[in-house]
Design brief:
- By secondary structure, the protein is mainly α.
- The chain is built from 13 helices and five strands.
- It has helices at about 15-30, 40-45, 50-70, 85-95, 100-105, 105-110, 120-135, 150-165, 210-220, 235-250, 255-260, 265-295, 295-320, and strands at about 5-10, 35-40, 75-80, 140, 175.
- The protein is globular and about 75 Å long.
- The chain binds adenosine-5'-triphosphate (ATP) and L-tryptophanamide (LTN).
- Adenosine-5'-triphosphate binds next to helix 1.
């Protein structure tokens, strides 16, 4: 069975972008693949996090995995920091990656822009992400469009390692949805919808109440026209909303256009809000039950146990090939 691995940072409230761009594909892929879905808390601390908030968000993301439909009997759900092999292989990958490669990463440039002090971990972030993926010999990595560059560096590092130390690491493929891979911000269609955006009206959180969702969508920026037409180049805002509609209703973009031909933005936005609520409300209901039951601790402990078995095998092989003197018995 082919292997799938992906991760989501507990760095804020998960958004509809995280759901459509990534999590929904996790749910889809679990049926026919051996899956590892991780809360990447070590990545989250590459920018400052409040300790209490980090703890709460880590549990929240894990519970959202379950609420969104990931079945812990089918997929391994765990926290990155529960499997020490990530930090260890992350370090080894840091020694393999070039400064020039890291300097080209647009996520680093975006996140570092305008900041006076930037932690070195934000810069070396892709080396840890490469380790995450390579530890599990993942075939497929479901991510949103913004992670393409990190996947390329992961592939390059695996090839570099194999070339230098002999074939051992699997070269992973990105799995990026054709539609919905880049949901844009509600207040600025040139930026991706992001949970780290301080403006709450810029994103729809997976846990926003139906009324908040309706309010945010009614306030979403649009152009001054009234035609519900998909054209990202000239009408980026309404095109983004049409894309969200199509994804939530499971229909094509053309069908959305047809349904709202001649009706204007008002009725379209009203119906869009209901479509989003219809997707998120059942997830929120399950989320509440999962948090109340406390079942997540058991799921995370089993997930970390299974993940460690796989990860430690790869780590030992990598260390052996690199020339580390292994402890007796390894
Ligand atoms: P932040 O915005 O806090 O930097 P993020 O949401 O971009 O974080 P993650 O939480 O690690 O980062 O993202 C998890 C997954 O969700 C990744 O696969 C990412 O590509 C995807 N994703 C994030 N935002 C969007 C978006 N706006 N549209 C589509 N996919 C997205
Ligand atoms: N870099 C990703 C999160 C991430 C990830 C991973 C995704 C960390 N490790 C491994 C896929 C596979 C992000 O910022 N969205």
């Amino acid at each position: 069975m082919a292997r799938v691995l992906s991760g989501i940072q507990p760095s804020g409230n998960l958004t509809l972008g995280n759901y459509i761009g990534a999590m929904r594909n996790f749910v889809k892929l679990q049926h026919e693949h051996e899956c590892y879905f991780m809360v990447v808390d070590l990545h989250a601390v590459t920018v400052p996090q409040e300790p209490e908030a980090l703890r709460e968000q880590s549990e929240a993301v894990a519970a959202l995995f379950l609420a969104a439909g990931i079945d812990p009997l089918k997929a391994n759900i765990f926290l990155q920091s529960h499997v020490p092999a990530h930090a260890e292989l992350g370090w080894l990958m840091t020694t393999l990656v070039y400064m020039g490669e890291l300097e080209r990463m647009t996520q680093f440039k975006d996140k570092a822009a305008g900041k006076e002090a930037v932690g070195a971990g934000l810069f070396t972030y892709p080396a840890l992400m490469a380790a995450d993926i390579l530890l599990y010999e993942a075939d497929l990595v479901p991510v949103g469009d913004d992670q393409k560059q990190h996947l390329e560096i992961t592939r390059d590092l695996a090839q570099r390692f194999n070339h230098r130390f002999g074939d051992c690491l699997k070269i992973p493929q990105p799995y990026i949805p054709e539609v919905g891979a880049r949901i844009m911000s509600l207040d600025d269609a040139t930026k991706k919808m992001s949970k780290s955006n301080p403006v709450a009206g810029s994103y729809i959180a997976m846990l926003d109440s139906p009324d908040v969702i309706r309010k945010k969508i009614s306030r979403a920026v649009t152009d001054s026209g009234r035609e519900v037409k998909y054209d990202p180049a000239t009408k980026p805002e309404i095109s983004n909303l049409i894309g969200i509609f199509a994804q939530c209703a499971n229909i094509g973009v053309a069908e959305v256009e047809e349904r709202f031909a001649g009706l204007g933005y008002g009725p379209f936005k009203k119906e869009l809000a209901e479509q989003v609520v219809a997707v998120l409300e059942p997830i929120q209901q399950r989320y509440k039950e999962i948090r109340e039951s406390g079942e997540i601790y058991d799921v995370l402990s089993k997930g970390a146990f299974n993940a460690s078995q796989t990860a430690n095998r790869t780590l030992t092989e990598v260390k052996r090939r690199m020339g580390f003197l292994l402890p007796p018995g390894q």
